[in-house]
């Protein structure tokens, strides 16, 4: 029997609490561990301080796509998410993630929002809007060097990227919000993209993995379509 994503989260949190010593321990002062394969991060303690989302900053923009909640103290799920790592991170291999979206109408993208937090290493990563390439991310339309200003496990400050001129997107065309790293400038980034708090169903996404070892299997160095819980994101504009 296949358990629901919500059931998987509940079970995984319980299991990780019991066998956390068997997982890759990171940021001991921040009470963060990863799953045995390194692909998911778990904050084992709830945040002591919660910062409400600044909804006024988005008041002039419309939501083109996204899953950010309107709960004042729960814009996203603080404590469970997908790892994002650079090639020289403490994880030992590189992992990126991307979420697809399809605009319902022609629009202009002015702002991207993600729930990425840092764990250790460099705090700089890359947030981009990409074209589609046969069901996985293609060439970046626009890339932004951004900073994960808050540690993973906190809530609910978002990492944002702005484009005042705007990026045109077409109705019915699939695009991707991509969180990746810069091997040359910031190869030690180690963070996690926290899940959304409003939709526990599996959805299409894409994962990218690169290693000099065996962690990526036959998918080393390429995007692969997956089904997973979605991390929190917003695509805003006009």
Q: How does the SSE layout of this entry go?
A:
Layout: H1 5-19, E1 25-26, E2 32-34, E3 40-43, E4 62-66, E5 80-85, E6 94-101, E7 107-114, E8 116-120, E9 124-132, E10 137-147, E11 159-169, E12 175-180, E13 190-194, E14 203-210, E15 222-228, E16 233-237
Structure notes:
The chain has 238 residues and is mostly beta strands. It has one domain (5-237). It is built from one helix and 16 strands. The strands form three sheets. It has a six-stranded antiparallel β-sheet with strand order 1-2-3-5-13-8, covered by helices on one side. A hairpin with a 5-residue loop joins β1 and β2 (32-34). The protein is globular and about 45 Å long. Mean pLDDT is 88; it is low at 1-23.
Which characteristics define this entry?
mainly beta; six-stranded antiparallel sheet; disordered N terminus; 238 residues
């Amino acid at each position: 029997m296949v358990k629901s994503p919500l059931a998987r989260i509940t079970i995984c949190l319980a299991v990780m609490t019991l066998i956390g010593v068997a997982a890759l321990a990171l940021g001991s002062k921040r009470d963060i561990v990863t799953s045995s394969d390194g692909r998911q991060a778990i904050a084992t303690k709830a945040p002591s301080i919660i910062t409400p989302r600044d909804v006024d900053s988005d008041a002039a923009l419309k939501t083109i796509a996204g899953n950010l909640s309107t709960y004042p103290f729960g814009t996203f799920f603080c404590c469970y998410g997908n790892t994002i790592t650079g090639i020289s991170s403490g994880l030992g291999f590189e992992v990126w993630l991307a979420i697809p979206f399809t605009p319902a109408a022609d629009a202009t993208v002015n702002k991207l929002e993600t729930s990425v937090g840092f764990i250790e290493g460099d705090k700089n990563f890359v947030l981009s809007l990409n074209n589609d390439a046969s069901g996985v991310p293609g060439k970046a339309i626009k890339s932004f060097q951004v900073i994960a200003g808050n540690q993973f496990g906190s809530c609910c400050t978002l990492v944002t990227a702005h484009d005042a001129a705007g990026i045109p997107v077409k109705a019915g065309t699939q695009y991707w919000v991509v969180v990746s790293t810069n091997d040359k400038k910031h190869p030690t980034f180690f963070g996690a993209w926290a899940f959304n708090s409003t939709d526990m169903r599996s959805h299409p996404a894409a994962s990218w993995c690169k290693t000099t070892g065996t962690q990526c299997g036959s998918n080393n160095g390429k995007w692969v379509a997956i089904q997973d819980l979605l991390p929190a994101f917003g695509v805003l504009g006009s």
